[in-house]
Each structure stands twice: as structure tokens, then as C-alpha cells.
Amino acid sequence: MKTNFFLFALVVLACCQLSLSQRSTKKPTTKKPSKTAKPGKSTERPGPSKLSCDQSTPLKFSSLGTDKDLLANPERGYYHHHEIKLSKYSKLSDEEMKKWAKEGVTLALMIFNIEPFVKKPLSDDTLKNIAADFGALRKGGMKGIVRFSYNQTDIKGDPDKYNFPKTTDAEKSQLLSHIKQLATIFKDNVDVINVVQIGFIGHWGEWYYSRNYATEKKGEGWKPDKKQQADRDEIVKALMQAVPKSRMLQIRYPSAKMRLYGNENLKPGGDRTSERARLGIHNDCFLAKGGDEGTFETENNKEAAQRKWLEQEGLSVMVSGESCQKNDKTGCTEAKKQIEKQRFTYLNTDFKETVIKEWRNDKCYNYIGNKIGYRFELVKGSLQSTVKKGASFCLSLDIKNSGVAPLYNERPLEIILRDQKTKQSKSVKPIPYQPKVDPRSFLPGKTTSIQVTVQVPSELSPSQYDVILNLPDGSPSLKDEPKYRILFANGGKVHDKVNRFNIIGQITVQ
């Protein structure tokens, strides 16, 4: 969607000084530039003009709260389940996505059922249809949680009593060939991919019921033998190569990641491109009994350790899923507690229906929907009231992430000046030597303090300007699309809902 006015972005990749931990009250110090200074360190370098922040005035912001309407933001929140039967293809409906958008939903679980190709390559028409669904997501302002599965049978009763056929999955050589065919699809549509779930193996792509990659043992369930485990590992590695490094993948069980990459937790803000740093978890039996129905291993006291591991791991990789059974643990009290402990970024609003109904009836559905994932709030700040053309002005902000998880996919933070009279802004280059602010570093429950200097172009007309904080999508194809911008969880006059800008204050250019 294009804005209904002629808008040039005044972009400043902020900021001069950044604390990536809790809010700091220390005054910034001035240091000489160092050739060895590392990115992200508070190193002030010569700017285009001298700067004085003495005339800054306080900014105050109000919070939206978490129990009101859902605040729709990209790459987080509730999702709708959408199965694509490629044997009888029907493209994702524009009308359906419009309905989802009205609910505050920005995500769709795109499960591509490739059962017809269990013993042969994906056809050209099938690849075109898969690409068409990604195009539909882009048109609808949505992003996809992507999974491929060879069997989506709706099993009545106990799945353990279902006689799974040999063709539940493709054999390894065929499966790896399918992944190679899909690599171009992933690359061409990475902008509308939120995350890719490993899938492929087992019924529903959930890595359990499988004749090719697991062995059923009486009293022990379905577990891989040594060769099957090696095949699983090879499939994970193949998907890591096929999916662009800018996107994470998810695997069904914490133990599966631990077997591949060890038990040590990632450090928030550290490595983001290795296989280990790109693999999250999808818990598809959230709040179920028996260690969330096997999500966590219950034997030998492993469950507590795995739950503790996930609480820390979720600060670096995406965690999400759905409920699968109603019990005495699925009510609001435990749900609120566990979305925070497990660092949930998104949840299925379609399943399990009885659990979702309970949350709606007990008035915690909106709370959960607003808390999962990131939730950025402006707490306070300061801004100069006037500035001369060609000079620089100061802006400081305290930003709190009141959600239960970080933002995972990269996106910039920009400052825009927009003339209040003409609704236009003048385009200039970012101020040189300014370290980049990475919104992914805004950790849940923490407040981050940022300080920004913005140079006003000498040719800018004297007028009153809105100072706008903008977090656009990180992909060039979606950067100017309002639906993919992040709105802060603030009331008052912060929201420009049409353009999805955050107006933090005004400044007069003299």
C-alpha cells in the first residue's frame, strides 16, 4: 500500500549512544574516534556540526495496556492455519486475508501438502502454485510460517492406533531433491517468510509418526534408530542451506536441537547466522500434559532442564506453536505464565478450539495475543523544541519491550521529519559515523535507552515538523509498505494508523 501523500523519508539510522541493557542514567562521555572501536560501542565521532542538547524538553508517553484490542504488528501474534492441497490447488483468498487483518492477525501457517509427490519430483505447475501463494501473502500484507508435509490425514481418535503407511514420508533421496527444488522459492520469497519449520518428516510434518525416519517400539513410542537419526540430521542441514540465512528455522522438539548442537544456550545479541543460531522450536502441544505431550522429555528429570533451557534459548531464537488438548492446565493462569517462560512469539488461533474458547470466555485472549512476541513501548524521552536549518538536534528515548520475546528478523530504525502543513519531508543521507540501532536487541522486560542526533538539511523550509520513529520491514521490497511497519504500544497521539508511523513529538525548524 502506498501512502496517500508525497512522502520522502528523512532517514537516520540511529543512534549516537546506545545501551543494549537496562536503561542507564549515566551522561554520555565524549571520546576521540578509535580505529579499533567495535560496532555498537558508545563512540562519538565528529559530526557535520556542533551540537547542544541543553534545550531539550521532556517527552511523556502513555501505554495502551495489554487487555484492550489486539495491536496488530508483523511477525508476531496469533496466526491462522492454512493448508494448501497441491493435488487440488486453490490460492489463498484475498477476502480471507482481509478478514484475518480485521482480527489483528498478520501471520498464516502455510502447510503445503506435497503427498502426491512422495515418490517423484515437484512439478513445474506445483512450484508455480507455491510461489503464487507467497505472492498472495505479499498482496494481503501477511507473512508466512512455512511447513511442508507429505501427510495431513485428519485422524480420529488416538493417533497411536493409526496404521501409518510406508509412504507417510518420501525416502531421503527424494526428500532432499524436493528441498533443492524449493531453494529458489525460499530465496525469491524470503521477504514474506517469517520462519520455516523443518517439517517433511512424520505425520503433519511434526517429526513423530514416520515409517522412514522413526521406529515404533512398544511402550517407548516412535524413535529414530542410529541410521534414521543420521538421515534426520542430513535433512536439517539441507534445509539450512536452502533457506536464506536471514531467516530462522524451527524444529519440533528441544531435544532434537540439543542432539544436533549441544545443550549450551546461545547468548542474546551474539551469533545470528550459524545453523545453531538459526534453529528455534515450535511446541505444537502447548500446555498439554506429559511434558506438553512429549515436547519435553519426561524421563530421568529431563523436562525441568529442557524447560529452563528453552526459557533462555528463546531470547535468541524463535519459539511458538499451538495447543492440542484441553485440561486443567490450559486456563488463563497457566497460559499467561507459560507464554513468558517459553518465550512464545506466535500461537494458533484455530486450534485447539476448546482452549481458545476458554481464553476468550475468561478474558485473557487479548492479553495473550498482545504479550506474545515483541511489544515495544515508548516510556519517556526528550526532544529539542527548535532547531536551525543545517544544525543538528537531540532526541533521546527510553523504549521498553513489554512482550515476552524479542524481535528476531532484522529491520532498521529510522527517524523521519514530516512537515505538518504539507505532510512532506525532505530526503537527506544519514548522518555519518552513527552506529546502528538493532531493534532485535530490545530484550523482553527490559528498557533500552537510545540517543539520536539528526542533522536538519540546510535547504529545509522553516516550519513545524512531526518527528516520527519508523521501524519498516528489513526487506527492500516491503520497506515502503505500511502494513509491515511496527506500531508502538502507546496511546495518545503517537499512532499514525494510516501510514503506521509513530509520532514522538514536534520540532520547529527556523
Structural account:
Pfam families: DUF4832, DUF4874. This is DUF4832 domain-containing protein. It comes from Daphnia pulex. The chain folds into two domains: 184 residues, Immunoglobulin-like, CATH 2.60.40.770; 295 residues, Alpha-Beta Barrel (TIM Barrel), CATH 3.20.20. The chain contains ten helices and 20 strands. The strands form four sheets. Strands 3-4-5-6-9-10-11-12 form an eight-stranded parallel barrel, surrounded by four helices. A five-stranded antiparallel sheet has the order 1-17-15-13-2, with no helix packed on it. α1 links the parallel β3 and β4. It is globular and about 80 Å long. The two termini are 33 Å apart. The N terminus is likely disordered.
Low-pLDDT parts are 1-52, 427-435
Cα distance spanning the termini: 33 Å
Structural class by helix and strand composition: alpha/beta
Quote the CATH topology of the largest domain.
TIM Barrel
Number of helices: 10
Roughly how many Å is the radius of gyration?
Answer: 24 Å
Number of domains: 2
Percent of residues in β-strands? 15-25%
Strand adjacency order, main sheet: 3-4-5-6-9-10-11-12
CATH architecture of the largest domain: Alpha-Beta Barrel
Helical content (DSSP H or I, runs of 4+): 10-25%
Report the major sheet. Answer: 8 strands, parallel, barrel
The first-level CATH class of the largest domain is given as: Alpha Beta
Secondary structure tally: strands: 20
Order of helices and strands: EEEHEHEHEEEHEHEHHEHEHHEEEEEEEE
Mean pLDDT: 88
Overall morphology? globular
Protein name: DUF4832 domain-containing protein
Region (Disordered): 24-59
Keywords: Signal
Domain DUF4832: 278-490
